[in-house]
Specification:
four-stranded antiparallel beta sheet; 4 strands; alpha+beta
């Protein structure tokens, strides 16, 4: 009986010693070489584990360390970005005559672009050699259509292989674009495939036009 009690006590003692050894092995060493006790407070995690809410969620480097924070490059709004680009160009040009600069004029033009691109109603129909497009809107949208589409037809008419004309219709403009060579099937298909919005992008005149507008310079064929 006594032998059984001794064996039981010995087993319990060994178990306690093993548990204590594991706990002590996980504690940081104190400056004096001993092991400093570590108490777990509210919200604390075991050593080496970070609470989820404090974990970095940005891009990670191959080593697993968070990448250095960069500087945002997007302006947050397209029109704002276009104006900011013009301002940088004006600042970089020592010949800029600031007494003539009119950024509000560009802002109004960008509003017109937004109205035509996002709000206008467009009905296109195939015509011999190309495409006729009725572009309609009300209020500011109608004004923007006439301010943009009519002058742009002049640009399209100067594009090699294309002929363009406009007609004022109730609520907007009818734009007709055709291939100068009606037998040029590829050009005809391109005109029809581009449609209104694609045709408005042709000709790299928009950006120079914006800069000239801000500087108070006139551009032939543009009424705005």
């Amino acid at each position: 009986m006594k032998r059984g009690v001794v064996i039981g006590i010995t087993a319990v003692g060994l178990g306690v010693a093993l548990v204590a050894g594991v706990v002590l092995a996980q504690q940081p060493a104190s400056p004096g070489g001993g092991t400093a006790p570590r108490q777990m407070g509210p919200g604390m995690m075991p050593h080496g584990v970070m609470p989820h809410g404090q974990m970095p969620h940005g891009p990670m480097m191959p080593s697993g360390a968070p990448a250095a924070a960069g500087v945002p490059t997007l302006p947050g709004q397209d029109a704002f970005g276009a104006i900011a680009e013009i301002v940088r160009l004006l600042d970089a040009d020592p010949q800029t005559d600031w007494s003539k600069v009119d950024l509000e004029r560009l802002r109004q033009h960008l509003i017109d672009m937004n109205e035509v691109v996002l709000r206008a109603e467009v009905k296109a129909s195939a015509v011999p050699g190309g495409l006729a497009t009725d572009v309609n809107g009300i209020g500011r949208t109608e004004q923007a259509i006439r301010a943009m589409v009519v002058p742009h037809a002049g640009e399209l008419d100067q594009t090699p292989g294309l002929a363009a004309k406009t007609e004022i219709i109730p609520g907007g403009v009818r734009l007709t674009v055709t291939a100068r060579d009606p037998g040029d099937d590829k050009t005809v298909a391109r005109v029809r495939g581009l449609g209104l919005i694609g045709l408005l992008t042709l000709g790299a005149h928009h950006q120079p036009h914006h800069l000239a507008m801000v500087r108070g310079e006139a551009m032939s064929g543009h009424g705005h």
